[in-house]
């Protein structure tokens, strides 16, 4: 290795997809082979398991202290010794002893989270037994359930940002969502937010059908408006949805993340 290499450990919500998008942008921004003055070349771990194996090659557990402005990197060079650079706010040792261990976090695997699934009008009344069976087979725990008649403002707030840019589409979606009673479920399980979104598939049932006929929107949806389901797209959105639809609380043993968000 003739040039230094920067090794970073990053933490974020939906980190793998977010970082992959950034790297894709870098790749598309290149007009030719990389040079010293061009955009950086980068590789990333693709799974939590690979992340864990690679992290222990370069870092010790003491390096991972969360909750403060703290960033570590390694410069690797064939011509110089291994150098660790740390940019950090002041962190005393008593606080360090209470900090979360990211090694332990990675080793523990998928975190138990809650998310929200809204079954749109006309779907749950005909297909509820099958939907509940699918949830059971996917090992989701139903920790909240209620019927609700959505107000137009609430229905509009559930729409994807790209739909909200089109007034005609907003009107069509809101008219459908407020046309009857919807069923709202709060689901709990390992990595529940991403797992649910993966099961639902794209907003367009035709695209979902082309990708995989077993996707839930492919099975229950008929159009981009009547596509069967709404699901929380991220954990912050799931927290918002839980507070919106279940202000009275949930019938589950509160997981750590829900406690931290005061759900």
Automatic annotation (TrEMBL):
SMART domains: NDK. Keywords: Kinase, Transferase. The keyword Kinase applies. Pfam families: NDK. Transmembrane segments: none annotated. InterPro entries: NDK-like_dom, NDK-like_dom_sf, TXND_domain-containing. Belongs to the NDK family. This is NDK5 kinase.
């Amino acid at each position: 290795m003739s040039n230094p290499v920067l090794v970073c450990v990053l933490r974020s919500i939906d980190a793998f997809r977010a970082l992959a998008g950034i790297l894709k942008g870098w790749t598309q921004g290149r007009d030719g082979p990389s040079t010293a003055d061009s955009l950086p070349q980068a590789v990333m771990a693709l799974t939590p398991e690979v992340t864990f194996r690679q992290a222990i090659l370069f870092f010790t557990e003491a390096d991972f202290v969360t909750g403060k402005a703290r960033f570590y990197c390694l410069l690797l060079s064939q011509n110089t010794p291994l150098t660790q650079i740390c940019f950090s706010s002041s962190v005393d040792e008593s606080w360090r002893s209470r900090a979360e261990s990211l090694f332990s976090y990675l080793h523990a695997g998928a975190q138990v989270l809650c998310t929200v699934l809204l079954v749109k009008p006309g779907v749950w009344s005909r297909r509820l037994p099958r939907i509940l069976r699918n949830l059971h087979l996917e090992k989701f725990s139903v920790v909240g359930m209620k019927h609700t008649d959505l107000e137009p403002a609430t229905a509009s707030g559930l729409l994807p940002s790209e739909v909200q840019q089109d007034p005609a589409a907003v009107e069509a979606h809101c008219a459908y969502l407020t046309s009857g009673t919807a069923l709202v479920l709060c689901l709990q399980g390992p990595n529940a937010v991403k797992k649910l979104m993966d099961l639902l598939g794209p907003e367009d049932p035709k695209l979902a059908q082309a990708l995989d006929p077993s996707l839930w929107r492919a099975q229950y949806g008929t159009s981009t408006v009547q596509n069967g389901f709404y699901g929380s797209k991220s954990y912050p959105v799931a927290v918002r949805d839980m507070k919106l639809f279940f202000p009275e609380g949930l019938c589950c043993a509160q997981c750590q993340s829900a406690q931290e968000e005061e759900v």
